[in-house]
Amino acid sequence: MPDLPPPLQALLADPKAHLAGTDIKLVLPLARTLLNEILAARPADTPVEELLLDPDADDFLHVHLEVQAPVIGRVRRRITLRPQGAVAFPDQPWLHLDITDGFRFIDKPILKLMQGQLADKLPRGIELTADHLRLHVPALLTAAGYQKLVPLLRHLQLSSRPNQLVVHLHLSA
Amino acid sequence: MHPVERHLFATDFKDLAGTHLQGTIALSDELINLGIMDFLAGLKAEPAPSAPAAPDQDPAEARPDPRKLLSLLQVNQLEVKAKDGRIVVAVDVKM
Predict the structure, then answer these.
(1) Strands A153-161, A73-84: parallel, antiparallel or unpaired by DSSP?
(2) Which residues of chain A neighbour B23 with C-beta distances below 8 Å?
(3) Distance, in angstroms, between A22 CA and closest chain B CA?
(4) Sorting pLDDT into bands at 50, 70 and 90, what band is A105?
(5) What percent of chain A clears pLDDT 70, i.e. is strictly above it?
(6) Do the beta carbons of residue A83 and residue A159 sit within 8 Å?
(7) What are the Cα distances from residue A134, in Å, to A84, A158, A159, B19?
(8) Which residue among A104, A105, A150, A157 is least crowded, i.e. fewest CB within 10 A of its CB?
(9) Is residue A162 a contact partner of residue A28, using CB atoms and an 8 Å limit?
């Protein structure tokens, strides 16, 4: 990671040693406009052509997406996700979101297309079915070069309220 | 500047309102010393205060005013101690 300042490089190289004794909790609300700025900054070759997030009350998170599927052409869908449980290292590495609405039986080609493109273009650790989206957090951190942060992860959970996705994070070293 | 960074600066971080950081951050003396070295290197690299701003700088690329950023924070606790070769910061900050 040559672009990072030296203190951050040292920290990421051995976080356990440099942060020993740390115990910190972060509640980070991300407003809808910011989430969609983040999604808009995704690489051009990601699987979907349009991708918008709309956090709602009671932990419901709507995803508006548009994909170009073989045979059926361009389709738009609204998928509703609901975060379940928390990630805790090492016992529970998956960030699990139920898909409560959106993928119908006839959407199998879209699902298959997205599964194929996820497998081709994104790191391993993302699992999409008609019922759920699961992210294997240690695998994704490792793919991003942050594998040494994984043991510090005590708790990671998502919740949703109108216009805000909230990240709850507990780190200790 | 990354588009997300530009958005955060342009909107005075309002999309992060409600952020709450609480707990203890313990930093090794090695990390503190690397930080001091990096800070000094940054000061040396900056232009003199009297130097005029670059005429072609886009105002949208401007960094936020640190005083304005600090005014957004509610600092309930910020306590620094040196302990066993580490700097320990007890922090409770809301935005």
Answers:
(1) unpaired
(2) 22-25
(3) 5
(4) low
(5) 95
(6) yes
(7) 10, 13, 15, 25
(8) A105
(9) no
Interface residues of B toward A, Cβ cutoff 8 Å, are: 2-4, 7-8, 11, 14-28, 30-31, 34-35, 37-38, 86, 88, 91
- The pLDDT tens digits of the residues spanning A67-82 come to 877 677 788 889 999 9
SS (H, E, C) chain A: CCCCCHHHHHHHHCHHHHCCCCEEEEEEEEEHHHHHHHHHCCCCCCCCCEEEEEECCCCCEEEEEEEEECCCEEEEEEEEEEEECCEECCCECEEEEEEEECCCHHHHHHHHHHHHHHHHHCCCCEEECCCEEEEEHHHHHHHCCCHHHHHHEEEEEEEEECCEEEEEEEEEC
Quickly tell me which residue has 């996820």 as its tokens. A118
Longest dimension (CA), chain A: 57
Q: Is A127 within 8 Å of A146 (Cβ atoms)?
A: no
Residues of B in contact with A15 (CB under 8 A): none
CA–CA distance, B62 with B50 (Å, rounded to integer): 18
Give me the residue spans of the domains in chain A.
Answer: 6-172
Residues in chain A: 173
The pLDDT tens digits of the residues spanning B10-44 come to 888 999 999 999 999 999 999 999 999 999 988 88
Helices A32-40 and B3-10, interaxial angle, to 10°?
150
